[in-house]
Amino acid sequence: MSDTDSFIDEVNEEVRRDRFYFMLKRYGWIAVLAVILLVGGAAWNEYQKAQARAEAETLGDAMFAALSAEDTAARAAAFEEIEATNPRAGAMLGLLTAAEQAEAGENDAAVATLNGIGLDADVPAIYREIAQFKAITLQGSDMPANERRLALENLAQPGSSLRLLAQEQLAMIDIEEDAPEAAIERYQGILNDADVTSDLQQRALQVIVALGGIRKWVPQPPRRKRTPCRRWMQTITNPA
Questions:
Q1: Secondary structure of 48-97 in the HEC alphabet?
Q2: Quick one: which of 66, 161, 206, 225 has the fewest CB in 10 Å?
Q3: pLDDT class of 215 with cuts at 50, 70, 90
Q4: How far apart are alpha carbons 70 and 235 in whole angstroms?
Q5: Among residues 171, 135, 132, 166, which one has the least CA distance to residue 152?
Q6: Whole-angstrom distance, CA of residue 124 vs CA of residue 127
Q7: What is the C-alpha to C-alpha distance for residues 193 and 214, in angstroms, rounded to an integer?
Q8: DSSP line for the chain
Q9: pTM
Q10: Which of 137-146, 164-173, 193-202, 212-221 is the least confident region?
């Protein structure tokens, strides 16, 4: 390699080095900022997890302390004093408070607590449905039948987690209004639902039998679909 080539290579190396430092000075802050954001985001995420864990532990301790009270009135008062940190926790506290209020004989207060949960749009749907259902069943016959029916029909819509329990309550209203045929039809619909539980199935069967709908219910196995080959074989064996 000649001295001229060596000199040119050195010049090119210096040019590349100068260009590298120029780009580093001009855009290096972006890389530094990206690293800071990445590290800061991870730290903030861990901080939020720790905060949520601490809040859950504090809420759990307060709930256990409330449950350890001697009588229902004291437990209900203790639950009311607990401050909820989010709508889900507030719904859980409300359901526990309503349960203690009902056990203490304060049905009006329990219904008011449950209705508050059921009307809160920030509460998850499952908690609202549970609160509405419990408020209806807690009032019982004190609530007019037409109002109960209307409220239960809303809970019996497809997609509702409590639709089968709502259908059961609607059937009981049918019985209350001396409409046993309508009640039997509702109970049979419950039995035919794929999501029916064994306990609800047993209750439905008992009421249907009590109403004279059936004497004995035996589940029928699904019929097998007849294939063309099976139909052809039956034609051969049974030409008539």
A1: HHHHHHHHHHHHHHHHHHHHCCCCHHHHHHHHHHCCCCCHHHHHHHHHHH
A2: 225
A3: very low
A4: 78
A5: 166
A6: 6
A7: 18
A8: --HHHHHHHHHHHHHHHHHHHHHHHHHHHHHHHHHHHHHHHHHHHHHHHHHHHHHHHHHHHHHHHHHTSSSHHHHHHHHHHSPPSSHHHHHHHHHHHHHHHHHTT-HHHHHHHHHHHHT-TTS-HHHHHHHHHHHHHHHGGGS-HHHHHHHHHHHTSTT-TTHHHHHHHHHHHHHHTT-HHHHHHHHHHHHT-TT--HHHHHHHHHHHHHTTS-S---PPPPPPPPPHHHHHHHHHH---
A9: 0.66
A10: 212-221
Residue type, position 153, single letter: E
Q: Indicate the residue type of 96.
A: L
